[in-house]
What does this fold into?
Amino acid sequence: MTYRELYDRGVRTLEEAGLEEAKLDARLLLEFICSTDRTVLLAHPEHPVTEKEQEDYEEALERRAGHIPLQYIIGSTEFMGLPFQVNPNVLIPRQDTETLVEEAMRDLCDGERLLDVGCGSGCILLSLLHYSNDCTGVAVDISEGALECARENADLLARTYEQDKTLPERVTFLKSDLLSHVEGSFDKILSNPPYIASDVVKTLMPEVKDHEPMSALDGGKEGLDLYERLIPEAFEHLIPGGSLLVEIGYDQGKAVEELFTKAGFVRVEVIKDLSGNDRVVRGSRSLL
It folds into this structure.
């Protein structure tokens, strides 16, 4: 069987399963299985595939047709231009969350101490450490599986980029329910907590509600449960002048802003993402 014939079979399989991005997913899975790139389908469609590649591809197609996220099948994704391993223990990094990282980078200074609460894959903290100098961080999660994934990603970046060869040494991985086991103070605390209302979680696409970790999605009745705990705890772990930045749902700006103010934060602001939706709330601990 040729490369093109196998791809066409993949497209048909995923279209029959009702996947909107059937052509893209079929191509990405084929490239993953055959260790090729996007030029092969155009330049060498007659390229023969081995029996093993065909078997592995058909197995991957079956999993994707069952609405298992593409990123979990491939085992990786890209965030902030960097590679990150992902598995069902962690939420798949989204472009929306890049707004949180970019906002933190606006005033990130060399040598700052950072805390990522609910780190998941580690994409937030590790991206900030990659794009800064001499910063250190603590990555916190209640899931040991998530912490293991984050450790592996620190090692991956250290192997991939010369500038990150000391990255694993600059991160402490800590199992903790929010900040319950966290010690010390930080220049910046960041978090992308679960913020989807419980009733809304049930309506999400199968790839999300059936396969991504529910603990990283369900934010309680109104989606605010974790913010109500996190924000006052974070205030106590910030240096004077330090900042807390959290990702939010598009309709939660006002509610989370009020929680910041109630906890004693100053200079509280809501930042929009590239689509014009409220995406990040940040606030600072007063210098006084």
User: Anything to note?
Assistant: The first strand starts at residue 76 and ends at 79. The chain has two domains: 3-66, 80-284. The radius of gyration is 21 Å. Residues 3-66 form one domain.
